[in-house]
Amino acid sequence: MQRPIVQELLDDDLGTQAEIAQSLRDLRRINDWFGGTGSTIRLLRQVAERTGRRSLNLLEIGAGSGHVPLAARERLAKRGIELKITLLDRVASHLPPHGVAAVVGEATQLPFRDGSFDVVAFNLLAHHFAPETLEVVAGEALRVARVAVLINDLIRSRMHLALCYAGLPLFRSRVTWHDAPASVRQAYTIEEMRDIVSKTGARKVEITRHFLYRMGVLLWK
């Protein structure tokens, strides 16, 4: 299945305020039900265990409401791992109004110094970028990271697309109905992702498969 370029409505708030709010709620459900949140938690545990750290300073790029890192913080705390979170999104209205550090900025030009965070992560963001832009974003994330970059995204396949269409009745926003299949169509295969991120200068690249066509990528600094 070829990878097309499709504009996703949520990227630029192309909907009413109610539709955007509903789509963000749908996105939280998608991550919780279909493996996104669990994949990030497993990958962060892996970073903590390999480095022996019991506290990780995390920057989440394209964070939206921050549901995934906030859920990870709660789950990891039960295992004695502290997660200190900073959220970044290019759209201010997507970020939570209070309760966590939040910054408006572009993923291609992060407004932070080199090595500012232990881990820089992005969930369901990689597929929004063309290959050459994704290479820039991953490189910027690696610059800002001290330990690793964590990428959690979809795997493109015909079966995944069929499952996506089958699951659309679970959601109510027309934004979700447009964006969900567009995300699957624009997602990368594992081989494509490996080729792109291997150009960033990471010391080591690890890519694993996760539940329901998710891939987890760790770029070690």
How is this structure best described in words?
The protein has 221 residues and is of the alpha/beta class. The protein has helices at 17-33, 36-51, 67-77, 131-144, 158-167, 174-186, 190-197; strands spanning 55-61, 82-89, 101-104, 117-123, 145-154, 204-210, 214-220. The protein is 40% helix and 23% strand. It has a 7-stranded mixed beta sheet with strand order 3-2-1-4-5-7-6, sandwiched between helices. Helix 5 runs antiparallel to helix 6. The termini are far apart. 44% of the residues are buried. The model has no long low-confidence stretch (mean pLDDT 95).
**Measured distance between first and last alpha carbons:** 33 Å
Give the overall pLDDT as a whole number. 95
Q: What do we call the CATH topology of the domain at 36-155 and 190-220?
A: Rossmann fold
Strand content: 15-25%
Helix/strand/pairing class, anyone? alpha/beta
Label the CATH architecture of the domain at 36-155 and 190-220: 3-Layer(aba) Sandwich
The low-confidence parts are none
The CATH class of the domain at 36-155 and 190-220, by name, is Alpha Beta
| Rg, Å, rounded | 16 Å
Task: State the CATH superfamily name of the domain at 36-155 and 190-220.
Answer: Vaccinia Virus protein VP39
